Amino acid sequence: DGLTARGWLQAHGDAIETTELGTQALARWGIDVAQQRTRRRRFACGCLDWSERRAHLGGALGAALLDSFCEHGWIERTARPRVLRVTVPGQQAFDAWLTAA
Prior knowledge:
The chain has one domain. The strands form three sheets. Strands 1-2 form a two-stranded antiparallel sheet. It is α+β, with helices and mostly antiparallel strands. Helices cover about 45% and strands about 20% of the residues.
């Protein structure tokens, strides 16, 4: 929701595309949008979260963001499959990142 509200992503049917603004913003976080388009999996789409019952960003772009967030220590995987934990530094970073746009 936050990335769409900031004009970084746009939905086109069941597909999601980055805007020029979004491509630039994601590049600042080390996400190469063009490279994600070459992956075998779908580029970007909504994916229903089983716990929240809301869509989150799926596909190659969603996986790239998750990998980046884990590398920064903002999100940690837990012992339970498909369960993630946002760290305190992660919460601070997300608050700053999403309010600065």
